Fold this sequence. Notes:
By secondary structure, the chain is mostly helical. It is built from 13 helices and no strands.
Amino acid sequence: xxxxTVHMVASVLLGYPDERLHDGLGVLREAVDGxxxxxxxERLSAxxxxxxxxxxxxxxxxxxxxxxxxxxxxxxLTYYAYGDTRKRGAALLRFQHALKAAGFELADGExxxxxxxxxxxxxxxxxxxxxxxxxxxxxxxxxxxxxxREEDSPYADVVAAxxxxxxxxxxxxxxxxxxxxxxxxxxxxxxxxxxxIMEAGR
Length: 202
């Protein structure tokens, strides 16, 4: 249950910080205070403190500047492994199928591989499916966390809390993350059109 709570809080904090986030700070704080003592609780508590001390406009501006304007801080997990290549369309379908199997429908225009969406999938009870997706794309999550730390962004704490719910990274995972950080995602200027075509044909 504590993993689901961590992911529930993270799913809210990793979304765009609108008024619903600020209105729900009390509930989020209560949920975090109820977590076992450990890194996830400490990291989420630190970020909630930042939110409480930061105005809504300032937090929203930082969110946009970080996640929308800096490619290396991309919150979409398939981007790290596949970039804007045709293979990304198939990878996105794996996320979409996991969401559908859990009865989770996204709003129009929302992509299923956003880290906040995967965390919400876990929070809704599909912990095993969300964990599988996170582990499959762990290198991307690690690169995102490292990029946020380098940017000195408080959002690094939220991603660290998510990573704390996973087993420690082994040599293979660490090597993959280092390679991805050094080389970046593959390049192929085709956008996400294949994903849209595949979905339309289902």
